[in-house]
Amino acid sequence: MRINLYLDRATLLHRLHPQVKLAILAATFASLYAIDRPSAVAPVAAALGALLVGARALANVRRFALMFVAVPIASFIMWSLFYGYGQSGSAAFVARPRHDAIAYAAGMALKLESFLAASALFLSITRVEEFTEALRGLGMPYRMSFTIAMAFRLVPLFLTSSLSVVAAQRARGLDFSRGNVFARLARYMPVIVPVFMGALRRADAMAMALEARGFGRESERTKFVRSRFAPRDVVAAALIVSVVVVYVWAAAHGYGRIRRR
Amino acid sequence: MLAFESFAVAYAKPPAQALRDVRLRIGRGEMVAVLGASGAGKSTLLKCANRIVPALKQAELSGALRILGRDAKDLHVRDLADRVGFVFQDFEAQLFSTSVEEEILFGLEQLAVEPAQMRSRVDGALAAVDLVGFERRDPSTLSGGEKQRLAIAAVHALDPSLWLLDEPSTDLDPAGRRDLFALMSRLRAAGATLVVAEHDVEALTGADRWIVLKEGRVALEGIPAELLARAEALAALGVRPPDLALVCERLRLPLWPLDVESVAERLRAAQVRIHAPSAPPTALGRMESAVVLEAKNVRFRYEEQEREALRGIDLTVREGEFVALIGANGSGKSTLAKLIGGLLQGGSGTIEWRGRPLVSLDAGTRAGAVGYVFQNPDDQIFAATVEEEIAFGPRQIGCAADETAARVREVVAAVGLAGLETRDPFLLVKGERQKVAVASILALRPALLILDEPTTGLDYREQLALMEVLERLHRRGQTVIIITHVPWVVGRFAQRAVLLQDGQALYDGPVARLFADEALCRRADFVPPEISRLGIRLGVPALDVESFLAAVT
């Protein structure tokens, strides 16, 4: 089974400098942080959709299809029910759905979808080694950069190991669907313990393997291929900065927000 | 290259004396096999030789150790990276990069090798392990054997003079294992010094020296020909003596050279008498018993995979059978077993349990129908005591307290865990943890027990103990399917073999008939046990040493 989320494709997005790739991810979060009107979030969401197509990364969207569908739907339902609760002075437990509650819920759903899309895009076009290089370029110490990049690489591995443990416990009759929410949570204990122990063992083994191959021995490492900024990176960076400036300015002036302060 | 003088290692957590009074010298260009039961100290010995112990695993060291002529106290594991290469058993944990090429570059970049030199070192390492053309492949998509070869390539690029290989073949299928040992021979021919901790001694008869550890001490040391003459002593130390050595020892024939053709020649020259029918048994026992499971035209494809994992498999299992599901990695064994076990859903075709579709059974009925023991016992162990661990399953299916206690008592006795009921399962050795996993499933009283590579990572004594548990259960009527790569386990314990290749059943019938068909085995990259191959040359249909010896005098 494929563990890495990186997809080896020859697209323009894959050829971008690692720091520009990281900037796309950061820009998505920075632009949408204070924005909640669906019409304002939609252009970013659409742009990310186009970038995913351009990067030929839809395979990773399909891989996490459940997350791409369930997270925005759950968010939409929750916000359309609870938006405004505790602020309108209503004593009702559930605030009545109103026009702005629906709009806010739609905005939040789109925002979460955009964050997921930006993360999927970043991991699809960025190798672990480039991620480390990008963080190093921002001045982060090498060991910390490598550890953060490795953590991303290990997430799918962790998920795979969790699925294996779930299957092993199901084979012993464990039924996750019985009982109330607390009983169900308690039933995850036979999954959490083996997954946690397995992760500790793996971390231990990986640390030994890294040290045995000289990890961090030299204060200055060499690089077989060092990424260099190309004109396309300058254009991409300019576009990213423009989008962030426009969105931050709009948010600061109350545009793109449902309630002005 | 290595000199241990009165060397001892004691771990603090959990407290254990791993090595005691080790006196050992390993010279340049030697190939030394380190053998012994699990927990004998093999891995600790190797990890001390590149300073993983004590750098990453706290331990009290005493005595003296010199590595490449220098006092080990002055060395740190990362200082040795370009002189002492280490290959681990777990190939997943030693690959961290996005592509094969990046994996090899990792160490070179860490050691600040000039970029101009890197191309030739990467190409040389890939050529050495026969992975040229794989440069851009994602390591996680390689087979087990390819992953282990990549791990070796990553070490090869650093050009170490001393190689330490810690049970590198344990998780490999026969083809992966064969390629790995061929690669080790090439490294040796190129002048490398190799120290290999292993359970598979058949592949190491060509080593210069064997060292057998017992409870941290060197119990036996010598050239393989000498130690093979002491087959019983090896078995007592947890080392499975090669079939051919046992035959030569019992028939008082010269031991060397120890390959199938040479031993067959010596037996012919000694004019041994054969008094057994030369035709292998062609019928299976228990053909009259009831069909419990019937799979017809089963096809299955995993998401994201273009190829089907199963391409129209038919399988009928009768009550009381002992079936071995064999084939190379990726041939579809686990997929088929998981579908039968109800752990995978989807695909096409039908799977029926006693005439009813398996998917229509409720959870309780299914738990009593098929039990599935996963390869890694650590995927399921979570409880504080062995007793609690085994009781978990019966409680899940609604057994009352007294019924649960009765089941726990019954399976503890059946698998030989008596006396360990109140022990913490995490602190047991792997063989015992595997027994806990088997007992946990047996407590559900499944009519069909499926075990996925149950002997992986166990030493010979542990393998034998576990397989004898299964044999006892089978004699009492338990239907068993095991997935395994271990030829002697198939020959000695299974009646029927189902050989898969590329998602199709290449063979389904008596084990003896499969072992007799060398061309078919070759096609499926399956290597029958040496004793069967010897038997074919002499016209004796043998599945294990005892049946061979019973047929010749």
Distance from N terminus to C terminus of chain A (CA atoms, Å) equals 50 Å
Largest sheet of chain B: 6 strands, mixed
Identify low-pLDDT runs of chain B: none
Uncertain parts of chain A: none
Radius of gyration of chain A: 22 Å
Structural class of chain B: alpha/beta
Strand order of the largest sheet of chain B: 6-7-8-3-9-10
Helix content of chain A: 55-70%
Description:
The complex is a heterodimer of chains A (261) and B (553). In chain A, 68% of the residues lie in helices and 0% in strands. Chain A is built from eleven helices and no strands. In chain A, helix 2 runs antiparallel to helix 6 (99-125), helix 2 runs parallel beside helix 11 (231-252) and helix 5 (65-82) packs antiparallel against helix 6. The termini of chain A are far apart. The model of chain A has no long low-confidence stretch (mean pLDDT 87). The model of chain B has no long low-confidence stretch (mean pLDDT 90). Chain B starts with a strand and ends with a helix. By secondary structure, chain B is an alpha/beta fold. In chain B, 55% of the residues are buried. In chain B, helix 4 (115-128) packs across helix 5 (144-156), helix 5 packs parallel to helix 6 (174-189) and helix 13 crosses helix 14. In chain B, strands 6-7-8-3-9-10 form a six-stranded mixed beta sheet, with helices on both faces. Chain B has 21 helices and 20 strands. Chains A and B meet through helix 4, helix 8 and helix 10 of A and helix 3, helix 4, helix 12, strand 16 and helix 13 of B.
